Q: What sequence folds into this?
């Protein structure tokens, strides 16, 4: 069942999404070689609590951390751990909050130092594909229009692997609401979108093959070929002519450009 949100509910969801953006901006400023992803997860938990919100991933289906931090060939759902980040690593930080009963859920991928042109292009193109998907999130279009736009830009144009097993989703009082939003599909397929539908659109794109596997911890998803994977996620509200992006990358990108330890891949 699809839940459409009222104007007031959308403003509350914007606050939730923006709290995730602010948390990601705090993380951005901390990133450097030598830091552990577990220490980042601690900061995330404290920042969310200081803002009177709850980290929504913690205990979700038994997930044991505040955030998902996925390094290099980890696609998503990476456990924060005590391994130190190194120059040339890429890391996706995915954060969810519940603020005043409403979910925010979004993610960003960073380069610690220079991962090389091939990987920088993967980062750039995955982010572009997210915006190409968002362009299609307007009333009257179908979910498949979003899916097709992402797949065209990444798989067809660049030959990247589009992960099939994990998808974007509706967002609201629950972390995962209907409809599912795959990053692959046919134009004109799936349910028709109406104003007030809030979606988490989240391309997960591999440099190599599309196949992934889940580690024995039951969560960590890795690429089969061990090549890197990139993940970007925005929370967007479907509107008549142009989607309203509730989350905000501008504060993250500002912090990214200001942090000399990070490599800004460009737009
Ligand atoms: N952004 C991810 C998603 O939408 C995060 C979920 S991780 C979990 O599915 F721990 F909450 F499951
Ligand atoms: Co999500």
A:
């Amino acid at each position: 069942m699809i839940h459409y949100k009222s104007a007031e509910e959308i403003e509350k969801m914007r606050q939730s999404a923006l709290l995730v953006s602010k948390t990601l901006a705090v993380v951005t400023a901390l990133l450097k070689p030598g830091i552990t992803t577990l220490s980042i997860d601690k900061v995330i938990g404290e920042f969310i609590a200081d803002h009177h919100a709850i980290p929504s991933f913690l205990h979700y289906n038994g997930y044991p951390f505040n955030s998902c931090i996925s390094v290099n060939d980890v696609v998503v759902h990476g456990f924060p751990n005590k391994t130190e980040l190194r120059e040339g690593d890429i890391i996706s930080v995915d954060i969810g909050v519940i603020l005043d009963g409403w979910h925010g859920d979004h993610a960003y991928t960073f380069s610690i130092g220079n991962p090389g042109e091939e990987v920088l292009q993967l980062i750039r193109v995955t982010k572009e594909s997210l915006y190409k998907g968002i362009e299609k999130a307007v009333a009257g279009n179908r979910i498949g229009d979003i899916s097709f736009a992402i797949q065209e830009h990444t798989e067809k144009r660049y030959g990247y692997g589009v992960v099939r097993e994990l998808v974007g989703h509706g967002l609201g009082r629950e972390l995962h609401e209907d409809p599912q939003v795959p990053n692959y599909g046919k134009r004109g397929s799936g349910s028709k979108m109406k104003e007030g539908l809030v979606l988490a659109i989240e391309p997960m794109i591999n440099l190599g093959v599309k196949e992934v596997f889940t580690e024995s911890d039951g969560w960590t998803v890795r690429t089969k070929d061990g090549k890197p994977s990139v993940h970007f996620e925005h929370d967007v509200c479907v509107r008549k002519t142009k989607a309203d992006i509730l989350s905000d990358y501008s504060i993250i990108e500002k912090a990214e450009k200001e942090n000399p330890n990070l490599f800004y891949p460009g737009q």
Observations:
- DSSP finds five helices and 15 strands in the chain.
- Residues 87 and 113 are 5 Å apart (CA to CA).
- The longest strand covers residues 90-99.
